[in-house]
Amino acid sequence: MNPRLLAAFSLALSLQLSLTAEPIVLDLWPGKPPGETKPLPPEADTTKPDGRLVAGRRVIRLGNVSMPQIAVYPAPKEKSDGTAVIVAPGGGHYVLAYDLEGTEVAEWLNSIGVTAVVLKYRVPAREKEKRWRAAVQDAQRAVSLVRANAKKWNLAPDRIGILGFSAGGETAGLTALFENRTYPATDTADTSSHRPDFAALIYPGGLVPRGDSALAEWVKVPKGAPPFFFAQAHDDRVTSLNSALLYLELKRAGVPAELHIYETGGHGYGLRRTDQPVTTWPARMEAWLRSGGFLK
Questions:
Q1: Alpha carbon distances (Å) from 88 to 82, 171, 223
Q2: Which residue, 137, 249, 252, is CA-closest to 184?
Q3: How far apart are CA 271 and CA 163, in angstroms?
């Protein structure tokens, strides 16, 4: 079997979830993604047998992603009202925590009537300085592709959001903030807007450079930025200034935003419940979606 297909098959077998439907899986790009110049080894779960557990369970750490995709998990028909959320897993731009911050999030979103779109963006990072570039290109393309297919998938084109964790939080935040597309338009899907209608950042990193206490120079809040939701712990090894400082900039610009910083909780918990209050963030986000009119 082709090594890439074998890796994908092994990954699928490892996802023991109760999602409501088989996903619609699409390649993001009609050909080679922008800027790709050299092949990578086959995609694979890089988790070691003694790897860190989260809430007592292992985590898929998917590496060497060179052919980015989206996996669309439609919400149950009896619950869906057309809202969709693109989910960007974290992993430091090295790997993707594909179940912890991807498919498990899709399961939760489906349970509240939201169509989930798990984004498998390119890792490891292609650039040293702007490590987010390939990920943001893939995320912008995902927003355009979902919006272009909104009618086919029974989605509301003005209720397409993005939710990201850790490095995926950086990806989600920049995707929501950048006014311009970071790649040349490739086909008719790119005539649809690349900007999400709302953004949720869960323990984001990268917005404040390591060791700094100010937002990175490319993190700007433009006119017309969408509403934001943040959740992070004060004792996160990735400084909670990533959430707090962007929240302040959003408020200065008059952009609706909601910030939750918990005293303890660390980093990288996804939706897995522990005794830490920070792991109740999904209930806060659901309430925010409803109060903002994104979830009817």
A1: 20, 7, 24
A2: 137
A3: 12
- Gap between the Cα atoms of 141 and 122, Å rounded: 12
Q: Encode pLDDT of 174-197 as tens digits.
A: 999 999 999 999 999 999 999 999
123-171: per-residue pLDDT in tens?
999 999 899 999 999 999 999 999 999 999 999 999 999 999 999 999 9
Tell me the C-alpha distance between 113 and 49, whole Å.
Answer: 35
Closest by CA to 161, choosing from 259, 110, 82, 86, is 86
For residue 26, the cross-strand partners are: 70
Name the β-bridge partners of 96. 62
Sequence-distant (6+) residues with CB within 8 A of 123 are 62, 63, 64, 65, 91, 93, 94, 95, 96, 135
